[in-house]
UniProtKB/TrEMBL annotation:
It comes from the Eukaryota. InterPro entries: ESRP, Nucleotide-bd_a/b_plait_sf, RBD_domain_sf, RNaseH-like_sf, RNaseH_sf. GO terms for biological process: mRNA processing; RNA splicing. The keyword Repeat applies. GO terms for molecular function: RNA binding. Keywords: mRNA processing, mRNA splicing, Repeat, RNA-binding. It comes from Blepharisma stoltei. The keyword Repeat applies. This is RRM domain-containing protein.
């Protein structure tokens, strides 16, 4: 059974340094049906952790590749380069409801260079990089009479085509691959067997024998019918601000199809910095995971899988009229439709269901399942709370943490709570998370150890403004 041939072949070539660092990517697309070609695109890449001047000092790179230090003045970071390539294939191919496959000259770029660069930056390669065609293998299948392991220029000469030199060798190589593709497609060759980067990585690197039979790769699913991924359609983005707009998320996920974007709100209707995006397909969601750890407004965004159920709960929360009323929280492992119907706010985290109830009579029936409001707050500020300003050991020994205040509280409220003590605003710190929201916690540096002990004895577990305030020695937290 033959695999279905893609509509487009995207030739992808590169320039690398003497130490194997990726310096440039070039691409050009060939439409197999119309025999048309797009213009050559290229991006110079700034290798992370390297100084460009050091790479070009010896002149070896320029001599072997044609690339100069002056060319690199417009170099971009790898995530930006990947985003532009994804934008190209999306606008030029996917929007036409067409399929495509990358074609390279050999295996090194996709099995070694690009994965290594992504590993350095903690990036994930998009799924369309996992399978590809190799012009060397395709040429050997279409012209078995030719010698094996020919260079691109040697393939041109075998076909009787004239070499057209370019200043940068990788540009010349990309254009020549397209010329070879055009020639062998017109002669009837079919590109219906891809390589898999995982299979090629596992192969031992040994010199090829003098005579080698053409071995067909294992049978793969057709390009237009990929195996169903294990991912759902919903992703959760963490690390945005409470002012991040939907248009910014759409730009961040450029090239992916989004059905709906939803801001996750806390029990008081405030944005948490978590955003749920429901993608149009499983494939879009899978590719969105590759955007993990990229930056939006100089903030690193974490992207994880999320469930459809979480999306539905968050959607109901966003539509509810949350007016900051006092809620009591229940935490259970199993979904409870009765509780969900009564709750003013619901959430799903680490396999636990959280329900916020406002009826004290209801809460009595579930008293053993009740959790502190602080546990809810911690869900959204985990790993996001800003570090405290520097305090000396002596200051920490006199400090107390107060927690349980409303998330919109101000210093004047804390000073009112501490009205029997000599505390000024300068000795008071309101804890904030990474989106500059107060967390319900305050740090107070008292004048003496005796004052600290008096706060712990008289103000711990005391009601204030309808809320239970705890006092804890800072040195123990």
């Amino acid at each position: 059974m033959e695999l279905e041939e893609p509509d487009f072949l995207v030739a992808l070539t590169h320039t690398e340094s003497a130490d194997g660092r990726l310096l440039e990517l070039n691409w050009c697309a060939y439409n197999i049906h119309t025999k048309s070609v797009t213009e050559l695109s290229n991006i110079f890449i700034n290798p992370s952790g390297e100084e460009l001047e050091d790479i070009f000092t010896s002149g070896e790179v320029t001599e072997t590749t044609g690339l100069t230090l002056q060319d690199m003045q417009t170099a971009e970071e790898l995530p930006s380069a990947m985003q532009k390539f994804n934008k190209f294939v999306y606008e030029s191919i996917i929007l036409q409801n067409s399929s495509f496959s990358i074609i390279t000259n050999g295996d090194t770029l996709l099995t070694q260079l690009l994965p290594d660069e992504c590993t350095r930056l903690g990036l994930k390669l998009a799924p369309h990089f996992s399978k590809y065609h190799d012009i060397q293998a395709e040429f050997e299948k279409s012209h078995p009479e030719a010698s094996q392991n020919l260079s691109v220029n040697q393939m041109l000469r075998h076909l009787g085509l004239t070499e057209v030199p370019e200043k940068i060798r990788a540009h010349e190589e990309c254009k020549n691959i397209i010329r070879i593709i055009s020639h062998i497609v017109k002669s009837g060759h079919k590109f219906n067997a891809q390589k898999d980067i995982n299979t090629e990585k596992a192969k031992p690197k040994v010199p090829p024998p003098v005579k080698q039979e053409i071995i067909q790769p294992p049978l793969l699913q057709p390009l237009l019918s990929p195996p169903k991924p294990l991912y759902g359609k919903v992703i959760i983005m963490k690390g945005t601000t409470n002012k991040t707009e939907e248009s910014e998320i759409e730009e961040f996920l450029y090239g992916l199809r989004i059905e709906k974007i939803l801001h996750v709100v806390d029990p008081y209707g405030e944005r948490t910095g978590f955003i749920l995006s429901k993608m149009l397909s499983d494939e879009d969601a899978q590719e969105a995971l590759c955007y993990d750890k990229r930056k939006l407004r100089n903030r690193t965004i974490s992207i994880e899988e999320a469930s459809e159920e979480l999306f539905q709960l968050a959607s109901q929360n966003a539509e509810s009229m949350l007016n900051g009323e006092r809620l009591f929280f229940i935490k259970i492992r199993e979904k409870n439709l009765q509780l969900q119907a009564k709750s003013k706010w619901s959430y799903l985290h680490n396999g636990n269901y959280y329900y916020g109830l406002d009826d004290k009579n209801d809460i009595q029936n579930y008293q053993q399942l009740r959790v502190d409001e602080q546990e809810i707050i911690n869900i959204f500020r985990s790993s996001l709370t800003k570090s405290l300003p520097f305090l000396t050991s002596e200051q920490r020994s006199r400090a107390v943490k107060l927690r349980g205040f409303h998330q919109k509280f101000k210093k004047i409220e804390v000073l009112e709570y501490l009205r029997d003590f000599e505390v000024t605003k300068n000795n008071l710190i309101l804890r904030q998370d990474s989106i500059d929201k107060t967390t319900g916690e305050a740090i107070v540096v008292l004048k003496t150890q005796e004052e600290k002990e008096r706060v712990l004895k008289t103000l711990s577990n005391k009601m204030f403004g309808g809320r239970l305030i705890e006092a804890i020695p800072l040195i123990n937290t």
